[in-house]
Amino acid sequence: MGQAMLTGWNARNLAPSAVVAPSLDAGHHAVSRHDLFRDTPSAVAALLEAGTRPAAIVLAVKPQKADAVLPALAPLLGDGAAGPVVLSIMAGRTLAALAAQLPAGSRLVRSMPNTPAAIGRGVTVAVAGAGVDTVQRNLCDRLLRAAGAVEWVENEALLDAVTAVSGSGPAYVFLLAELLERAGTAQGLPPALARTLARATVSGAGALLDALPDDADALRRAVTSPGGTTEQALSVLMAPENWPSAVSDAVRAATERSRALAG
Ligand SMILES: NC(=O)C1=CN([C@@H]2O[C@H](COP(=O)(O)OP(=O)(O)OC[C@H]3O[C@@H](n4cnc5c(N)ncnc54)[C@H](OP(=O)(O)O)[C@@H]3O)[C@@H](O)[C@H]2O)C=CC1
Ligand SMILES: O=C(O)[C@@H]1CCC=N1
After folding, report:
1. For FRET with 147, which of 57, 229, 240, 263 sits at 20 to 30 Å CA-CA?
2. What's the 1 CA to ligand 1 centre distance in angstroms?
3. Segment (H or E) for 97
4. 215-255 tens-digit pLDDT
5. Locate the Pyrroline-5-carboxylate reductase dimerisation domain: which residues (predicted)?
6. From the CA of 63, how far away is ligand 1's center (Å)?
């Protein structure tokens, strides 16, 4: 996810002064323009030695890695309030949990992007912690907007459901493409044709949803001829025990997992 965001920053001349990526090749196209470090302490030491005080630090490690990374940032944050804004994209990890591992008064923003960020088509929801000023918020907004649309909310508790809907959501859509391909093959389509049709249908339907102002249910009805094929398929998918309950259960499970990753 951090890699996707870095691609967007490169395209918009928002180049970071340091990138920490333990196993990335320094010649990799997305990092070759930046100083690449294998670990956070080395990056912090190099920035301090160069007298570079970043305006923002983006945390894009797995929540499970945060305990190892956060304390190493302390020398850059100084007394917290006067330091850079820390922008986290970690699932679940709350502002309070981040604050507990950083110098008192650190300025924090928690956010949840999604992988269409890689092509500038992501959507991110962000919440600002105490003391984040307008300049810091605008900087975070610019960094996140390089990945697509940005929504700011006041209520941090919403981030768990956001994660379940838009953070994890691309995976549900990709799963649909996988299942459609498999089902087409089962109905006798050559596998390559089934793959082409499944991909084009998912991406085309998404593009149509994006291009038109209509609600999703109106677009669905427009496909559904009375007594036709779609009606038969939807009578299976829309049975309460099928997609309505499966999607609801899936989003609830992801929301609960996000809460469990709070830290
Ligand atoms: N994947 C997604 O769709 C989304 C993910 N997120 C959040 O983004 C974060 C990253 O997830 P994801 O991109 O999937 O995971 P990845 O494993 O792809 O990325 C994790 C990154 O952290 C780096 N890293 C690992 N250990 C350290 C360390 N000790 N110090 C510094 N950097 C380290 C890895 O470097 P290397 O690869 O070189 O080891 C890698 O670049 C998570 O917190 C996740 O919740 C948020 C929204 C969507
Ligand atoms: O699966 C995860 O935990 C991350 C957060 C949202 C998408 N991927």
Report:
1. 263
2. 6
3. helix 95-100
4. 999 999 999 999 999 999 999 999 999 999 999 999 999 99
5. 156-261
6. 8
| pTM of the full structure | 0.95
Structural contact between residues 76 and 69, judged by C-beta atoms closer than 8 angstroms: no
Tell me the C-alpha distance between 4 and 118, whole Å: 4
Cβ atoms of residues 113 and 144 within 8 Å = yes
Which are the contacts of 137, defined by CB distance < 8 A and separation ≥ 6? 109, 128, 152
Q: Whose C-alpha lies nearest to ligand 2, atom 1?
A: 168
Whose Cα sits closest to atom 38 in ligand 1?
23
Residue 63 is given by DSSP the state G
| Residue nearest (by alpha carbon) to ligand 1 atom 17 | 62
